[in-house]
Specification:
Keywords: Oxidoreductase. This is Aldehyde dehydrogenase. Pfam families: Haem_oxygenas_2. InterPro entries: Haem_Oase-like_multi-hlx, PqqC-like. The protein is mainly α. Helix content is about 70%, strand content about 0%. It has twelve helices and no strands. Helix 3 (about 40-55) packs antiparallel against helix 6. The protein is globular and about 50 Å long.
Length: about 250
């Protein structure tokens, strides 16, 4: 039977739940970081990514509404995170659309739900389900630790390539620069909330499991982008990969 872990042990376990499942391991991310994607491929990413991250404040709003009132700092974090996404300066989705337009697509295409893949729709639906149905602390683990905390490591590999290989301007890639900073802060705060409030064996185990699932969902989503939009133009062999993609 699992035992209650102290915070150091639990932090390590949470990190290990994500390790090996990072979206950096997907062929789409590898192709992006090595400058092998076309602007058209990046446009398809933006058209899908909008429908995953666009409702992020909505996901957090459902968690906020169910977070116990006594967890004041956790509620404040969720509210601040929602504020930053929507009205704390430039709306994050507007920055994403600016990048999308610089890749050759349009605001209308980005916002059209018919342009997201089935796998993107599944990730969005999973996020809503977690936000609405899971224990609020477990939901923070899944959405903030399992998903959001990965963003800085992903974008740190991709953003230099956007400037150096593709020639995007600082204004066009502001979406990525912003999230390297903000999501590092959000991810760490999410860890602290989970470490403090997942104070039973059951809650700790549920948080670990949902972090695994969240990381797997993002990896699956990113791998599907390669399969749906890139594979016909850029086979795995061109990326130095020879293993078949999981179904």
């Amino acid at each position: 039977m699992p035992e209650l872990m102290n915070q150091d042990e639990f932090r390590t376990a949470l990190e290990n739940a994500i390790k090996g499942r990072s979206a950096n391991k997907s062929p789409f991310s590898i192709a992006w970081a090595t400058g092998k994607l076309s602007r058209a491929h990046l446009a398809r990413w933006a058209e899908n990514h909008y429908h995953y991250v666009g409702p992020f404040a909505d996901y957090l709003g459902y968690v906020y509404a169910r977070m116990p009132a006594r967890y004041v700092e956790a509620k404040d974090f969720l509210l601040a995170n929602m504020y930053e996404e929507e009205i704390g300066g430039d709306r994050h989705t507007d920055l994403l659309i600016r990048f999308a337009e610089s890749c050759g697509t349009t605001r209308a295409r980005v916002q059209d739900e018919d342009n997201m893949s089935a796998t993107t729709r599944a990730l969005q639906s999973w996020c809503y389900a977690v936000a609405m149905r899971e224990d609020p602390i477990v939901a923070v683990a899944g959405l903030v630790v399992g998903l959001e905390s990965q963003v800085p490591s992903i974008y740190r590999r991709q953003t230099p390539t956007l400037r150096e290989t593709y020639g995007f301007t600082d204004e066009e890639v502001e979406f990525f620069d912003l999230h390297i900073v903000s999501d590092e802060i959000h991810g760490e705060r999410g860890y602290q909330i989970v470490l403090e409030h997942a104070n039973t064996v059951e809650l700790q185990q549920r948080c670990l499991k949902i972090c695994e699932i969240g990381a797997e969902m993002r990896l699956l989503y990113t791998t599907a982008l390669y399969r749906d939009y890139v594979e016909k133009d850029l086979p795995l062999s061109a990326l130095g990969l020879d293993l078949p993609l999981a179904a």
